[in-house]
C-alpha cells in the first residue's frame, strides 16, 4: 500500500511515521508513506496556500491552485483508488471501513487546515471524505495519521503476530476483552483463574463473554442498544 499525504505542515507528520510499527512496515517494503509539502506546489512568491474567504468572515481558506497542482502531479505518476479529504463532516471512520480500504493499493490523503478548503476541491478533486470523530481539530494531519495507522497495521506481515489485528477491538463488532500479563499477582490483585487454566476453549469463551459485557456497558450502540450518557 502506498499513501501520499498532502499537508501544509509536513513536520507534524514526520516523526509519527518514522518510529515503531509504521517505520518497520516501510523498512520491510510492506507500505510506503510519502508526505508532500503543499507549499512546494504554490506559485505565490511567499508560498501561501490560503486566502481570505469570499463573502467575508473569520479565518482563512485553503486555495484550490496548489491543491489541484499537487493532486494532478501525483495522479500523473500512478493510479489512485481514492483521493481522501480528512474532514469533520465526512463519513465516520470505523473498523469495517478500514478493513475494506486495507485492500486498496494507492491512496491520496489531503489534510485540511484553517477554515477548510475551497469547496471546489471537495466537489471536483476529492472522491471521499472521512472523519475520525464528531469534533474539530486544528488540521487534518492527526486524522491522516490515524487513518494511515489503522490501514497499515492490517497489511499482512506488518504485525509480529499475524492474528493480532484480527483480535483487535471492533473486528467482531465488540470491544476487546481485558488483557493481563506477569506477574500473576500484584499488590493483592490477581489474574482471573481461567486465564491460568490452559484450557483454550474456556479461555476463548471467557474472553467473548467479557467482550460482550464490556460492549454492553461501554459501547451499547455496537450491540444495537441505546448508548447511555
How does this model look, in words?
The protein has 229 residues and is an alpha/beta fold. It has 2 domains: 151 residues, 3-Layer(aba) Sandwich (Alpha/beta knot), CATH 3.40.1280; 55 residues, tRNA(m1g37)methyltransferase, domain 2 (Trp Operon Repressor, Chain A), CATH 1.10.1270. Helices cover 31% and strands 18% of the residues. It is built from 7 helices and 9 strands. Strands 2-1-6-5-7 form a 5-stranded parallel β-sheet. Strand 8 and strand 9 form a beta hairpin.
Summarize the structure.
The chain is α/β, with parallel strands linked by helices and 229 residues long. It has seven helices and nine strands; from the N terminus they run E-H-H-E-E-E-H-E-H-E-H-E-H-E-E-H.
Overall pLDDT: 91
Radius of gyration, whole Å: 21 Å
Count of all domains: 2
What is the name of the CATH superfamily of the largest domain?
A: SPOUT methyltransferase, trefoil knot domain
What is the CATH level 1 assignment of the largest domain?
A: Alpha Beta
Amino acid at each position: 500500500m502506498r499513501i501520499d499525504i498532502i499537508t501544509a505542515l509536513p513536520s507534524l507528520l514526520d516523526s509519527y511515521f518514522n518510529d515503531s510499527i509504521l517505520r518497520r512496515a516501510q523498512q520491510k517494503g510492506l507500505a510506503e508513506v510519502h508526505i508532500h509539502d503543499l507549499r512546494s506546489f504554490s506559485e505565490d512568491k511567499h508560498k501561501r496556500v490560503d486566502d481570505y474567504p469570499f463573502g467575508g468572515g473569520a479565518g482563512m481558506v485553503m486555495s484550490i491552485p496548489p491543491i489541484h497542482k499537487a493532486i494532478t502531479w501525483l495522479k500523473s505518476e500512478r493510479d489512485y483508488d481514492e483521493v481522501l479529504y480528512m474532514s469533520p463532516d465526512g463519513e465516520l471512520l470505523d473498523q469495517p471501513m478500514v478493513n475494506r480500504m486495507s485492500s486498496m493499493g494507492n491512496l491520496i490523503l489531503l489534510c485540511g487546515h484553517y477554515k477548510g478548503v475551497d469547496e471546489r476541491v471537495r466537489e471536483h478533486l476529492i472522491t471521499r471524505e472521512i472523519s475520525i470523530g464528531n469534533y474539530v481539530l486544528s488540521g487534518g494531519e492527526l486524522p491522516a495519521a490515524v487513518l494511515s495507522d489503522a490501514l497499515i497495521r492490517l497489511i499482512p506481515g506488518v504485525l509480529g503476530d499475524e492474528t493480532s489485528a484480527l483480535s483487535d477491538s471492533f473486528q467482531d463488532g465488540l470491544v476487546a476483552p481485558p488483557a493481563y500479563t506477569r506477574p500473576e499477582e500484584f499488590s493483592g490483585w490477581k489474574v482471573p483463574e481461567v486465564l491460568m487454566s490452559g484450557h483454550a476453549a474456556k479461555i476463548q469463551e471467557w474472553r467473548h463473554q467479557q467482550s460482550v459485557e464490556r460492549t454492553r456497558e461501554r459501547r451499547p450502540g455496537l450491540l444495537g442498544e441505546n448508548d447511555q450518557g
